[in-house]
Amino acid sequence: MPKKLVIALASLLVLAGAGYGIYCLVACEEAPSGQLTLYGNVDIRQVRLAFNASGRVTSLPLQEGDRAQAGQLVAQLEDLRYQANEARARAQVAAQEQKVARLERGSRPEEIARARANLEEAQARLQDASKLYQRHKALAKTKSLPPQQLDNTTATYEAARAQVDAARQSLELAVKGPRVEDIAAAQAELRAAQAELELATKNLADTKLYAPSAGVVQARVLEPGDMASPERPVYTLALTSPVWVRAFVEEPDLGKIAPGMTAYVFTDSYPDKKYQGWVGYISPTAEFTPKRVQTTELRTKLVYRVKIVVCNPEGELRLGMPVTVTIGLDQAKNPEGRGQSQPCPEKAS
User: Are 38 and 219 a contacting pair, CB within 8 Å?
Assistant: First the structure.
């Protein structure tokens, strides 16, 4: 065999061995035993904040780039009309409450006593009318009384009897009190008034806009003096913690992970820091590997999209930042296959 050929073959063997060694070194570093490494990008969640009421904007304290805390007042509408509606509804509820209370308590003792006195008075008038009627009736039989006078006496007597019956019915009604149906109707009207008050109170509260969670104002769409409505966003708020990492897992590794498993995220900007997170979602459908994913495998392989929820208390993870995700494969899987929210530490370790 020629000497040059032997030297060439030996050089090829040396290069092949060195390349295999480098490959093993890199592979062992990137994919240690019992750990799955994924690659992806940070995907910030955004919220478009809008009023649940219509009106003129009076206050917008935040500018683009300002940080908002969860529950912070970030905008307010002119609320004079809403305050008036709430006050009117509150007065209607108070009036109806008094009406219901009056019906439920029934007749007062004074009302019953007055009805009894009216009955006694009617009975006394009936007694006088009855005596006069009996005398005139006897005189009429002897032709000593004109027929017209007897007719007048008879009418007076019948009227007195009717007044006694009316007074007796009034006394019975006063003793029994209001009807059950009247009380039920008044209570229904009270519930309707209370519902109107709740609606008016809610409309008044909707003139204030609060941040649903901590975040950074990306855009301020409206300005003080603009007309706002539920269809017009006021702010675009980027939620800073937790954030999403959009990564992709290859089909052979799909069965190794499940929602709820703890994950750690690494970035080139802060190579000495790791951010705690967990698997929040695994796509049920496959897709081709996007070109932006930085993997060492072929681009034509099918992958499944995975969302990793990451704690970002210091706001260091930004939209589009490329990251590396590691997931320990020795974790117990959630049998129900759902992501489990985990508490974020105050500072990333």
Answer: no
